[in-house]
Amino acid sequence: MASRWADPRRSRALVGGWLVAAFAISAATDLRVLGAAAAAALLVFRSGLARNLRRVARSVLPVTVGLSGVSWLFLIAVERRPPPLAPYVALVLRSAVIAFLGFAVLDRASLLRALAPWPTPTRLLVITLGQIHALRLLATDSLQGLRSRLVRKPGAADVLRGAGGITAAMLTLSTRNSRDVVDAMRSRGF
Amino acid sequence: MHIPDGFLSPQITLPAYAVSAPLWAWAARRHFGHAAVESLPVVGSLTAVAFVIQTIMIPVPGGTSTHLLGVTLLALLYHPLVAFLCESLVLLVQALFFGAGGITVLGVNALAMGLLGPLAGWLAWRALRRLHEGAAAFAAAYVAMQVSTLVVVAALALQHALSERYFPVPVAVVLPAMMLPSLTAAGLAEGAYTVLALSLLRKANLRGVAMG
Q: Who contacts B180 (Cβ-Cβ below 8 Å, separation ≥6)?
C-alpha cells in the first residue's frame, strides 16, 4: 500500500485531493451527500478500514456524539418536543467522514515526499517531529520517575510540580538541540 | 478545547485562514529572522516543547483529567506572536498525526488558542506584574485559558447563528459544556503550572536561553 503511493507526485496528489475533499465535505449539510461521501471514502480506502474506523471512534465520535446527545436532550427539556434529528446525524457523519479521510490518506501518503518541492516546510516538519520525539522521551522518563518516587498515585499538585521541572529541562535541552541542528545544517551547506 | 473538523463551515474556516496566514508570515519574519537555517531549529524546538507540555495530563477531582497548554508560558517568555506560531504548528502536527482538532478548522483553533488567549494573558501579565509577579503569571494563564475558550464558544455560536441546520447545538449547551471545565479545572491547572514553571526558570536563570 505504501509503495503504491511512494511516488512523490502521487503523494502530493493524494494530500491535495484530501485537502479539497475535507473542505468540500465541511460545507455539506445534506444527509444524502454526506452518505455518498462516506460510502465513497469507505470504498476507496477499504484497505486498513477497521483500524481507521477504530481511530475515528476513539478520537472524534465521543465529542460529536456526546455534544449532540446533550444538546438533543436539552432541547427536548426546553421545548417539550424533540428537535429534528437530521442536523445532528449530519454533524456526526460530517466530522467522522473528514476524520476517516484524514487517517486513511495520511496512512498512505508520505507527507515528506509530498512536501519535497517545498524544502523549508519539509525541514521544519522533520526538525519538529525529531524534537518532539526527543522531548517526549524526556517527559515520559521524568513522569515515570515521579510515579516511582511516590507510594501513592500522583495528584494534581505532584504532576504540576513535575511539569514545571520538566519544562525547565525541556527548554534547556531544546536550546542545545536547536543550536546543534543549526550547526549541522550549516556544515551541510544549507 | 479544539474544535474538530466538521463543526465549522467554510464560511468561517476560510476567513480564519485568511486572517491567520499573514499573521503566521509576520510572526515568523519578526521573531525568527529571514535565514531559515537559524530560524527553523528554534521554531521546531519551541513547538516541540509546547507539544510535549500538552501531552501532560493533570488529574482533577471526579476521576477525570485535563491537559496543560503551555502556550501562555511561551507568550510570557518570548512574545504572543512566538506563541501563536508555535501553537499553530502544534495544532498542525496534532491534526496531521493524532486526529485532534482538524485541518479545516486549523485557522480558527490557531487564532483562539494560539493568538487571542495568549495575547489576553500577556496583556494581563503586563498590567499586573508590578503588583505581584506570581499572581500576575497565574492571572495571565487563567485569563488566557478563559479567552481561548470564549473565542471557541463564539465561533461555534456564530456557526449556529449562520445555520442551525449545519450546527444544531445551541449556545446554551456549548457555553456551559466548555466554560465550566475551563473555569473550574483547566484554568486553575494552567495558572499553577505557569507560576511553577516561571519560578523554576527564574531560579535556573533560563529566561531567553531558548532564543539563543
A: none
Cell 447545538, residue located:
B169
> Do residues B120 and B144 make contact, with C-beta atoms less than 8 angstroms apart?
yes
For A105, which residue in chain B has the nearest alpha carbon? Answer: B96
Strand spans (E) along chain B:
57-60, 64-67
Residue pLDDT, tens place only, A73-99: 988 888 888 889 999 999 999 999 999
pTM: 0.89
ipTM: 0.86
Nearest C-alpha of chain B: how many angstroms from A125? Answer: 8
CB-based contact B169 A67, cutoff 8 Å: yes
Nearest Cα residue in chain A from B2: A63
Q: Which residues of chain B, if any, have pLDDT below 50?
A: 207, 209-212
Q: Does B55 touch chain A (CB under 8 A)?
A: yes
Low-confidence ranges of chain A (pLDDT < 50): none
Q: Are A138 and A170 contacting, i.e. CB atoms less than 8 angstroms apart? A: yes
Residue B180 contacts A, CB cutoff 8 Å: no
